Amino acid sequence: MGHVQPNRTIRRGGGEVRASRAGRETIEETINAMFDEEVDQLVGAAPYERTGGRAAYRAGHYERVFTTTSGQATLKMPKLKGMRFATAVVKCLDWLH
Length: 97
Fold this sequence. Notes:
The chain is of the alpha+beta class. It is built from two helices and four strands, in the order ββαββα.
């Protein structure tokens, strides 16, 4: 995907949105998917999967807002029961902040 100008209208998902909103939504979706993958690895099981090797349980999420060049992105930070969720992604975002 090429560079998109911030105030340009683009087509996405059957409608038109501002490029900045599309960029922010893409950032949110990508980072939230990374969190899900990381939690799967930490816990040792996918959501609702029954396994004896499970290290912890998912306990929902809380929202954390980061400001990006495309606007504010709301990330869903996983909460775990039996383990603390620490991610290199957030450390990197904090550093950039």
